[in-house]
Specification:
The complex is a heterodimer of chains A (about 750) and B (about 300).
Chain A lengths: L1 H8 L2 H17 L3 H7 L1 H23 L2 H17 L5 H15 L5 H37 L2 H6 L5 H47 L8 H10 L5 E4 L13 E4 L10 E4 L4 E9 L1 H5 L4 E11 L6 H6 L8 E4 L2 E4 L5 E7 L5 E3 L27 E2 L1 E2 L5 E8 L1 H8 L10 E9 L5 E4 L4 E8 L5 E6 L12 E4 L7 E4 L9 E11 L5 E6 L2 E4 L1 H5 L6 E9 L9 E5 L5 E6 H4 L1 E10 L4 E5 L4 E7 L2 H27 L4 H21 L5 H7 L5 H24 L20 H27 L6
Antiparallel strand pairs in A: 1-27, 2-19, 3-14, 4-13, 4-17, 5-12, 5-14, 5-15, 6-7, 8-9, 8-10, 8-13, 11-12, 15-16, 18-26, 19-25, 20-24, 20-27, 21-26, 22-23, 22-25
Helix pairs in contact in A: 4-20, 5-9, 6-7, 7-9, 7-16, 7-17, 9-10, 9-16, 9-20, 16-17, 16-20, 17-19, 18-19
Chain B lengths: L2 H4 L2 E11 L5 E13 L4 E5 L6 H9 L6 E6 L2 E2 L9 E4 L11 H11 L4 H15 L3 H4 L8 H13 L5 E5 L7 H16 L3 E6 L2 H7 L2 E6 L2 E7 H5 L14 H13 L14 H11 L7 H11 L1
Parallel strand pairs in B: 3-8, 3-9, 6-7, 7-8
Antiparallel strand pairs in B: 1-2, 1-4, 4-5, 9-10
The structure holds adenosine-5'-triphosphate (ATP) and magnesium ion.
Magnesium ion binds next to helix 2 of chain B.
Chain lengths: ~750, ~300
């Protein structure tokens, strides 16, 4: 059952974790076996299709839809006459019971939960029903020998396999139809009640209340929605604006620097494209020169002094309020990232040549790393300098082995993190430069500058990013004082976007994290968020729009048309509650551009469920061609859940680490253990790759949030169904052909 | 001409060994069967229980695959779905969908033959009449059928495609004597239409009336093969039948036969078979309305 829960939860986190696993597996070592593993699925698919066509061409040519439909109709009629539809009232009772017993925080949450229960129950019922029906059908017919009278008719075994699939697909469609009609009616009734309670609440709310906009949105539009969005520029794509940037303050045209906070709060990330021939040199090292402006406007607060280990070089100065402690000289940490923003070269592997002399070590190989590089004053006032060297070893072992991006280029991302408290770091036009050092023919070092440009000679824009949470949201710290508050800038670059009405509805979603002392006071549990929109074309800036936000439910607000017209605008967002961290990603803010009918959205959700049930039918029919039905049920579940289970095992801990954890001291046994574990790991990953990916069946993810289900969400499961389903049907046919259908 | 192409059924060294889970031989159900059945023939496959009759039929239909040897049916290798268009099969018990009613069953099987809807509308009631299922029972689910009724609907589905080759595995089990007689009549009429019928039974009485040729299987091996009359005729026994002889005249005949050298001549009143008797009794107790046997058939089958 838990997989279904998983499908419904649609957690993005695990998707990314899984991506990470894959990245590790494919990225670490592109040896032959890995490459084989990568195309393992395709090889198997090709073999199955070839076998199917070679052995079954005659049957394929005889294929007759009428016969398939006839066989399907009998299976369908059997399910109906066996009263399979009687499970639906049970599911309905379950939905009613659970939704009445649940404790939503508000109307919107109530409808969200009920939607989820409806689809969850429909999914559970349809999956279990089709699983059992389809798994028992063929074995039962072979056992009671009804199959004798079918196989001795001109029906080919291919038609029998397809007929069964069609029949049970019809059964599941019938179940879903009943459940869908019920869900629609039940949700409509609920929504009507809840909307009237929203209206009542709105009537009693003071004009200035910050949740008015959101409530008014629901009162006007109803609770059952299917919204379409216009999003900020797509983030994370190479050479394209990231969609969301985090700054210490909004960049001004008059200021040559873009400012971010220190204290590990915000990073600057600079992309570089590395020429292949450079990486081919075994002695290539990379040299980054950094010119970063810094600003230390205030003394450390008491909390900062208490919470952070004080910098030993911090100075104490006398001020009028007594003794204030100021931050020490600005320091940075530097890491190299790959395309997916995972670390490739850690600070410990890179060298800070400027401060090498400070290192007191007897080891001649030791070097000063870049965990904490002090910026040295330069000739420009307020600008600090640092040099970071990536020695030949990590260049060869890490960077040269990075898998190239889709366009064949090798890219790295230099991440600079300011680590000093109460310090702002400013990045100007030439903040970062890169050159490579190699030896020429006579062994003399040669310096080759590497431009910071991509295709077409365009300069690649840096990204300014907030600290990431475990679910990869960027954290925006809340701050009472507006001038001190960090700001998230959402970059909307939608050419030709035109606002229809005088006020344009926006939606904001977040996940709020609170520090423990902020949580203690009940009144502080509301997170105040402030938004301001600047039209880049006209220069018009909207007045500040205030609202309260919370995790997992949307907040709605309206912006004046002048701010967004033309589609080229920046949305500045600040959290104004101390100790509340607002989690953001580029899609956290969106313009609600249109609304679809909820019935249509429900239909799309049911369609995804139906595709899931058809997949279950196909796997069940396949399994039932070669094992008895109880084993077929179990095997079907294993095939369905296998991939998900493997991704849940997640990031495979390094076998070496496990060996030491388990206390293998003998090097031989430890070696045997790590090798076995490694092989097992590889086997699991390969197996998981050929199993269907249930994560593609995102049934409730959109609809429960009131978002219109995209075509993409329909096409993804369809692709899984088509590829995986076709192959399994061919296999089922081949197995049944070879089977003696006498018990 | 190659018998594999011209004959209705041709087998060469056809052998079936049932194996257990590990592939070890368990039962030799059929051993080196060599058989040629001509088109238009009514052929009887005889033998005691477990002698391999049903196994032979399953092999011919491709339900199971031979361990060794070849079988061809209507000029095609056994199990080819194309020839199934021209085959009708009545399995040893009626293995049909229990949740369908009689008409639905026939319509379903008809659709597997791609018979058009209109044609089925005509053919289904005709066939149901032919096998003697009355109106109310046609609408009932097969799960409610008596054994004989299930047999009748099974026969109807075997004939739905007007087949050239009909395989009947113990067609008379579960049928009342009238049904048995009708079955025999049906087989004779099929033969008249030039169809090939393979009849499988261990009841000699069934077979002797209708079959042209028979073979007797025993423990998977073919024991005899030949013409029914030849096989059933016992050459050195003569039976004399006469009507209205007095005991004195009988004694005279006996003495005459003793003179002719036939010692221990047995002169008895000849008996009819039980089956003949049963039919006569039913006929005599049914009001004459032309074809009385057909009229009583459904009533008898339900009792
Ligand atoms: N699936 C099977 N597995 C193992 N042995 C089997 C199987 N089916 C049949 N047999 C064996 O094969 C032999 C022949 O069986 P078959 O059903 O052909 O007999 P039959 O002549 O039709 O008998 P009956 O008159 O009882 O119907 C029997 O000994 C039987 O036990
Ligand atoms: Mg038998």
């Amino acid at each position: 059952m838990s997989v279904i829960a998983k499908i419904f939860a649609g957690s993005i986190a695990s998707g990314i974790a899984a991506q990470g696993v894959v990245a590790q597996v494919t990225g670490a070592n592109a040896s032959l076996s890995d490459r084989l593993a990568g195309s393992f699925g395709y090889i198997i698919a090709a073999i199955i299709i070839l076998l199917g066509v070679a052995l079954g061409l005659a049957d394929l040519l005889r294929l007759n839809p009428k016969r398939i439909w006839a066989i399907g109709s009998v299976s369908f009629r059997e399910s109906i006459r066996r009263r399979v539809l009687w499970v639906t009232p049970l599911a309905m009772l379950g939905i009613i019971a659970v939704s009445q017993l649940s404790h939503p925080f508000d109307e919107q949450d109530a409808i969200r939960q009920t939607t989820k229960y409806c689809l969850f129950a429909s999914g559970v019922v349809v999956v279990i029903a089709t699983l059992i029906l389809a798994c028992t059908s063929l074995p039962k017919e072979i056992d009671n020998r009804v199959i004798y009278t079918i196989v001795t008719k001109p029906a080919t075994r291919l038609e029998i396999v397809l007929g069964k699939t069609v029949g049970f697909a019809r059964t599941s469609a019938a179940i879903l139809l009943v459940m869908g009609i019920f869900s629609y009616a039940y949700l409509q009734i609920n929504a009507a009640q809840l909307t009237s309670s929203i209206r009542a609440r709105l009537a009693n709310l003071p004009q200035t209340d910050q949740s008015r906009d959101t409530l008014r949105h629901y009162a006007d539009e109803g609770l059952l929605q299917a919204r379409n969005y216009t999003l900020p520029a797509p983030g994370g794509v190479w050479g394209v604006a990231p969609g969301l940037q985090m700054y210490a303050k909004v960049p001004q045209a008059s200021d040559p620097y873009k400012w971010v906070f220190g204290n590990n709060e915000q990073d600057a990330i600079y992309p570089f494209e590395l020429p292949d021939d450079l990486l081919a040199h075994p002695d290539t090292s990379l040299i980054f020169t950094l010119n970063i402006a810094t600003n230390q406007p205030r003394p450390l607060t008491r909390r900062e002094i208490e919470a952070e280990a004080p910098d030993p070089t911090a100075t104490t100065r006398a001020t009028t309020q007594g003794v204030a402690k100021y931050p020490g000289p600005p320091r940075i940490a530097v890491t190299l990232l790959n395309e997916n923003a995972y670390a490739v070269v850690t600070p410990a592997e890179m060298m800070d040549p400027v401060h090498q002399s400070e290192l007191k070590s007897a080891d001649p190989e030791a070097f000063k790393n870049v965990n904490s590089v002090r910026l040295e004053p330069s000739e420009r006032k307020g600008v600090g300098q640092a040099i970071v060297v990536v020695p030949p070893k990590p260049v060869q072992e890490k960077i040269a082995k990075l898998p190239p991006a889709a366009d064949g280029k090798r890219r790295i991302y230099l991440m600079i993190t300011g680590i000093t408290l109460a310090t702002q770091y400013g990045y100007g036009a030439n903040a970062v430069g890169l050159s490579a050092q190699i030896s020429d023919a006579s062994g003399n070092p040669m310096i080759i500058p590497i431009p910071r440009t991509g295709a077409g000679g365009k300069e690649l824009p840096p990204t300014f990013r907030g600290r990431l949470t475990s679910t990869r949201l960027q954290q925006l710290r809340g701050e009472e004082d507006r001038t001190e508050a960090p700001v998230g800038v959402f970059e909307f670059r939608q050419q030709g976007f035109s606002a229809g009405e005088d006020e344009v509805p926006f939606e904001f979603r977040t996940k709020v994290e609170r520090t423990s002392d902020a949580q203690s006071t009940e009144a502080e549990n509301m997170t105040r968020v402030e938004v301001e929109i600047r039209n880049r074309k006209t220069g018009y800036t909207s007045p500040a729009i205030e609202m309260t936000a919370d995790s997992d439910r949307p907040t709605f607000f309206r912006a004046p048309r002048a701010a967004v017209d033309g589609g080229d605008f920046d949305l500045h967002l600040r959290s104004r509650t101390e100790g509340h961290f607002v989690g953001l990603r580029p899609s956290s803010v969106a313009v609600v551009s249109s609304s679809q009918s909820f019935a249509f959205n429900l239909l799309k959700s049911l369609l995804i469920l139906w595709m899931l049930s058809v997949l279950v039918v196909i796997i069940s029919v396949f399994c039932s061609t070669f094992v008895s039905w109880p084993i077929a049920v179990v095997l079907t579940l294993v095939i369905l859940l296998g991939r998900w289970c493997v991704t849940q095992l997640g990031d495979p801990a390094s076998p070496q680490q496990m060996a030491t954890d388990l206390g293998f001291v003998n090097p031989v046994s430890s070696r045997v253990f790590t090798d076995t574990l490694g092989a097992l790991n590889k086997l699991l990953t390969i197996t998981a790759k050929v199993l269907p990916d249930l994560d593609q069946f995102r049934v409730t993810e959109d609809i429960e949030r009131g978002v219109s289900i995209s075509t993409r969400s329909l096409i993804d499961p369809l692709m899984v169904l088509l590829t995986f389903g076709t192959l399994l049907l061919i296999l089922a046919y081949l197995l049944l052909r070879k089977k003696e259908v006498a018990p | 001409m190659n018998p594999a192409n011209s004959a209705a059924v041709y087998t060469k060294d056809l052998t079936k060994i049932y194996k257990d889970f590990w592939g070890r031989p368990k039962v030799t159900a059929l051993h080196d069967l060599n058989l040629t059945i001509e088109r238009g023939e009514v052929f009887g496959l005889l033998g005691p229980n477990g002698s391999g009759k049903s196994t032979t039929i399953k092999l011919l239909l491709g339900l199971i695959f031979p361990t060794r040897g070849v079988a061809s049916v209507l000029g095609q290798p056994a199990g080819n779905t194309v020839i199934n268009e021209r085959i009708g099969f009545l399995p040893e018990e009626s293995y049909l969908y229990k949740f369908l009613n009689g008409e639905e069953t026939l319509r379903f099987y008809g659709k597997l033959f791609k018979i058009s809807h209109r044609e089925l509308k005509k053919r289904v009631p005709l066939l149901l009449d032919k096998v003697g299922l009355d109106e109310p029972s046609r609408k009932r689910k097969l799960r409610e059928y008596s054994k004989g009724m299930a047999r009748r609907i099974g026969l109807a589905q075997a004939l739905i495609n007007d087949p050239d080759l009909i395989l009947l595995d113990e067609p008379t089990t579960g049928l009342d004597p009238i049904g048995t007689r009708e079955m025999k009549d049906l087989i004779v009429s099929l033969k008249k239409q030039g169809k090939t019928v393979i009849l499988c039974s261990h009841l000699l009485a069934d077979v002797q009336d209708v079959c042209d040729r028979i073979t007797i299987l025993f423990k998977g091996k073919m024991q005899t093969l030949g013409d029914v009359r030849d096989l059933l005729q016992v050459r050195d026994i003569t039976q004399i039948e006469a009507k209205g002889l007095s005991p004195v005249q009988i004694e005279e005949v006996r003495q005459f036969m003793a003179r002719m050298g036939a010692g221990n001549a047995a002169i008895t009143h000849p008996t009819t078979t039980l089956e003949d008797l049963f039919i006569r009794v039913v006929r005599e107790n049914t009001p004459a309305n032309g074809d009385g046997a057909v009229a009583v058939a459904p009533a008898a089958s339900r009792s």
